[in-house]
Amino acid sequence: MNVSKTAGSSLLRWQRPRPALALGIAFLVDLIALAMLLRAGGTAIGCAVAVALHGGAAAVVWGSAAAQPGSPWWKSGPSPGRARSPGRKARGGGIPVGIATTSNAADGVRSRPGDVERLPPRAAGCSGRALAAAFTLTLPLVGPAVAAVALGTRGRGEIRRFVVDDEIARNARRRITFTAGDARRLADGLSTCEALLSEDADERRATLSALSRRADARSVGVLRWAVGGPDPDLAIEAALALEDLGLELEERLAACRAAVKETPGAESALAAAEIITGALAAGLADASSAPALTAEARRYVEMAARHGDRRAAQKIAEKRARVDVAAARSPAPAPAPTPALA
Amino acid sequence: MTAAPVAPGAAVADDADATAPADVCLLVEGTYPYVSGGVSSWVHDIIRGHPELSFSVLNIGSFPGSYTRRPYEVPSNVTAVHEVYCHEAKGAPLDVDGRQALEEEIVEARRRSSERRHESRMLSAIGRLHLDDDIDDDLLADLCSGDLDAAELLHGRAAFELLAELGAAVAPNAAFLDLFWHFRSIHVPVLRLLGAALPRASCYHAVSTGYAGLLGAAASYRTGRPLLLTEHGIYARERDMELSRADWIRDPDSDGAADLGIAATPSPLRGLWSRFFRALSRLAYHHAARILTLSDVNRRKQLADGAPAHKIAIVPNGVEVSAGAGAPSNPGRPVGATARVGGGRLRVGFVGRVVPIKDVITFIRACDLALRSVDLDVRLIGPQDEDGGYAGRCRELVASLGRQHAIRFVGPQPPDQIYGDLDVIVLTSFSEGQPLVILEAYAAGIPVVVTDVGACREMVEGRSAADRRLGPSGIVTRVAAPAETAAALVTLARKPALRQSMGQAGRRRVSDFYHRRGMLDAYRTLYTEMVAWPA
Fold this sequence. Notes:
The structure holds 2 protein chains of 2 kinds. Helices cover 59% and strands 5% of the residues of chain A. Chain A contains 14 helices and 5 strands. A 3-stranded mixed sheet of chain A has the order 2-5-3. Chain A is elongated, with a radius of gyration of 33 Å. Chain B is of the alpha/beta class. The longest helix of chain B has 20 residues, at 96-115. Chain B is globular, with a radius of gyration of 25 Å. At the A-B interface, α7, α8, α9, α10 and α11 of A face α9, α10, α11, α13 and α14 of B.
């Protein structure tokens, strides 16, 4: 996850560490150790006990640092829930560049898309703990106090991140592939339709090839436009590309049908329904085959509902909705043909 | 006929030099006599139509064992059928000895390459095929020099340097490994074919450009005998169509580009293949004494691809017309008559192989649409075994539409039994040259509904002014447009008079412009000229 810090008003800001009790104990232990050392006057036992106590004080500081804000018993910093400001950027001029999804918000509570979430303070890192312990060990008496100051010092402000919907986050992760080459093509390149009508055979070939590898609505739409377009050679090539896509769909569908037959269950039925709804949504099914495919997808969804358990209920409901949407968008049945002009 | 190796790394040809020279050596690529279809039928007809000439046939196949049957019975005036292959048969994995022998072969190839005092002429010519637009006699002479074998092409330093030069010049963005394998796939077949022993003949007749045209040009160069070139479909354009759909060439970043709504970056490797095939076409055009094509549409494409205008002639396909013009081939049935069966159903026929290029799916969908308005008796007549998966898909579509009673798959039938029982012929192909089925339908007085591909439009609407005066002999639709085809069928079903007039126009058209006798006479004249060509 991409997390960065927002800009703060000062370069360094000290936050008062709350576990004063722990640090106070460390200070007292260290004080006792020092007193014993002075009173013992060089006896071996006294020195040993004093050193042990001194080490114990360092251990207390180390433990305090390890349990920095974020742990249940370190009551420091604002609650993440209270810090949210839905639908707008964080206050204080910070730019929330980090991204969280609704399902992995910091406090385990589902956030709403658009929230700006302030991350809880994190425990001190390994180097922070070592530094605090070193202060305690090397500076008799004042070591714990210096360690407390070191632990309480923060950087340029707290970390915030923008909460987005899971689906958007998935798409963003999938599609963020904008390269310098893409930028150059955006500036210099032709649109897909222009490229299809280009005089440059290489450009035309590559565009057709790219479209024919994608079975989404946009590619199918462009190919159908090319079939009905003014260039007869292009029309043939686009028709062949659509034929390839149709063939590929048939093959995938046949495999799914076989899987449903072999192992009837919610998973196989939903997979088959997904193939069909994808094809309907992409416009690969024409008016004559769309009703039959829609009915088949509905059968698979109902089969999934019969076989699925409670956990699959949401998936099944989603799939049912997708089938309905795809059916509504699929081409209307063609009217009975009227005579053509001879 | 058994195949025997000719030379290491070369193609396989059988007894090429053993047979007496034929008058005409026909060079075909993956067709006659092993694959049925338009070109094969045409070759068969040409051979049968010239019994006074002897023919040999050289078929260029992909790899040994790719043909298992001969659908055609070879006529008696064929002296030999030769086979050459672009690739060698897939062998067993190499054992220790085999690997050692291969390593020695590679070392030897490298040694030959490093000791070569002059650059290989063949290698230089291969470079020119990609880098130069000029095609001349020297290029063919260099290609035919035979001073390079496959091992040296694959392992020699000079070949590697050419590969690097090609990469920098025409494929700068391609991954080098991809470029290497494509370079290898493009040129190894060329070396194998050019290394094959070619049959002797008085003239050579290539029935396409591409590899057949290359071999025809090479044979013509080596023997000094003329080359006749006939193109049914335009080879380089057909390969371009295949390259557009080829999933074995991946365009860089094309997915991301499409997300951004801009055109994909073309893979230079598609261009590499395309330029290679175009260079082969230009080489054949340059060296052919005569270039023949079927239609004016094709002639224009050949001119655009660099064929010299003075060499091109149009010789359309032809079919036998049984009686004089205007008379039906089936005397019991009037021309374009509204003969009906089963309560006035229009009898619609699809005649051809059930394969994707014929777009039978669109035909079935069109019939389904038309059946909502008129009553049809639809028959798909032709073999279904060439692409069993596609044929199965078509049958499933018919079943899913619930039209089994109206749309039937009847399999192949003898030509004389097909047309007497049909009212309309429909052809929904993605690609055609000059379909014989249209001419056969015309000869039987049957109108057609055809897609606007190849020469179909000029066959329906007329090529010359005199031809156009006959009127349309059918209806032309766009490709992959079932609604248009359905509308045409409804028109012809509801207007028997129109059907009759179109049938008569077709009958006159085939008699005047597409008579088999005319086609055979044209080729007889050409063959006579070629056979008598001065040495």
